[in-house]
Specification:
This protein has about 450 residues and is an alpha/beta fold. Helix content is about 50%, strand content about 15%.
Length: about 450
């Protein structure tokens, strides 16, 4: 249900507009002046504002400017009983969606409100489509492992059951999540993805639940979080095991109660979402080490879907190679080149530590770097050896197959353990050596399950 705010100093106008809009199944709030109206906008989730030009305390145009400055995506319909062309032009120049003259045509109000909310939805959908332009790969494979994954997808898609997708980096966990969404009753609604490993701990709560203006130094306006944006659709939390225990506790509460508060806010916001999660870590080991909440795991693991590494389903390799060869064909008007049987055997013998992501990059590179009509085993060997022989600086070999966030976490854990041992596990001295506060050091010790021996 969309929420509309009416800001008008005439009680009769507020009453009439409230009645007709509530009849159209909108939630309607109202305010007699701009100051109270702005207070409502800061403390509620508003989808559209109907704003009078002539208001006490603060003029409507000034209120319009403030709304567009702080909430640029919020549409405003300006109304006035003293309308003229200059006033209409001024309102539109300052960001108004449209301008209506009193006495109001109620049919026109209903039409304009519908158009405004529809445009907002289209803009949001367009943003999501742009964000997913590079996520259009398909799930390819007919091996028994892939058939098992498809069976889990078919079984779980129609329900709202929570799904936990596990597997190494590059195996296609996100594709599984998107396929579940596409086959669910929420397919026409939003699919909102959050990579928990890519967001700093200090910002993750705000990213998930949103924040109120002034909640922290850089919070200059109210912002919706991913839980709120995904309302009615699917929320996919990737790398869920990289969350801090504090964030895990808040996620657990949100999914138990289907409601939450924004950072710095007091009002509970109810949401209706389908939650899908994924991780490349062994959750049982994370629980044993105290880095993941067991109660959250039980909530998320209603339908487990393990995604095997590519080396365990090499039977799918010819299909995957054919798919990527078509995708990265440098001459789209001609059939893609093929691999000899020996070349395919070479690909199947390789371990693919980076899984499908590595195969995808390999096929793209080979299409760019060679124009041989048929790709031979020698050519495959050359490119695979080239990858193996890429020079890795001394001391960084262990990170060569890791993604950035995984490598950073591993390095940080190693460094903290080393400094603790050097400082005889004295927290204050270790924190000073690392250039951080003792409270931050305690957080890292807890996060990585580091044993302090003193």
């Amino acid at each position: 249900m969309s929420t509309i705010l009416i800001i008008d100093d005439e009680p009769g106008i507020r009453t009439v507009l409230t009645d007709i809009l509530e009849d159209e199944n909108y939630r309607v709030l109202s305010a007699p002046d701009g100051l109270e109206g702005m207070d409502i906008i800061r403390n509620d989730s508003i989808d559209l504002v109907i704003l009078d030009v002539w208001l006490p305390h603060k003029g409507g145009i000034d209120v319009l400017k403030e709304i567009k400055e702080l909430y640029s995506d919020l549409n405003v319909i300006v109304i006035s009983g003293h309308a003229n062309i200059d006033m209409a032009v001024k309102a539109v120049k300052n960001g108004a969606f449209d301008f209506l003259e009193k006495p109001l045509s109620l049919d026109k109000v209903i039409t304009l409100v519908g158009n405004s909310l529809e445009l907002r939805d289209l803009k949001q959908e367009n943003k999501q489509l742009k964000a997913s332009l590079f996520q259009e790969d398909e799930m390819i494979g007919s091996s028994p492992q892939m058939e098992a994954i498809w069976e889990r997808i078919y079984q779980s898609a129609a329900s709202d059951a929570k799904v936990l997708i596990t597997g190494e980096n590059g195996t296609g966990k996100e594709l599984v999540a998107r396929e579940i969404h596409r086959r669910s009753r929420r397919a026409e609604a939003s699919f909102v993805e959050v990579n928990c490993a890519a967001i700093p701990d200090t910002l993750l709560e705000s990213e998930l639940f949103g924040h109120e203006r002034g909640a922290f130094t850089s919070a200059v306006s109210r912002r919706k979080g991913k839980f709120e944006i995904a309302h009615g659709g699917t929320l996919f939390l990737d790398e869920i095991a990289d969350m801090t225990l504090s964030a895990q506790a808040k996620v657990l509460r949100a999914i138990q109660e289907q409601q939450f508060e924004r950072v710095g806010g007091e009002k509970s916001i109810q949401v209706d979402i389908r939650l899908l999660t994924a991780t490349n870590k062994n959750i049982e080991e994370e629980i044993a080490a105290g880095r993941f909440r067991e109660d959250l795991f039980f909530r998320l693991n209603v339908v487990p879907i393990p995604v095997p590494p590519l080396r365990e389903r090499v039977a799918d390799l010819p299909l995957l190679v054919n798919y990527f060869m078509h995708k990265y064909n440098p001459l789209p008007d001609q059939p893609p080149r093929s691999f000899t049987s020996e070349a395919m055997k070479s690909l199947q013998r390789y371990s693919w530590p980076g899984n499908i992501r590595e195969l995808k990059n390999f096929i793209e590179r080979i299409n760019i770097m060679t124009d041989e009509p048929e790709i031979s085993a020698e050519l495959v060997s050359h490119f695979l050896q080239e990858k193996k022989m890429q020079k890795v600086p001394q001391g960084l070999q262990k990170y060569s197959e890791m993604q950035l966030n995984e490598a950073k976490a591993d390095f940080e854990r190693t460094l903290v353990e080393q400094r603790l041992e050097q400082c005889d596990y004295n927290i204050s001295r270790t924190a000073q050596e690392l250039g951080i506060y003792p409270s931050n050091l305690h957080g890292k010790i807890k996060k990585y399950g580091i044993e302090t021996k003193k």
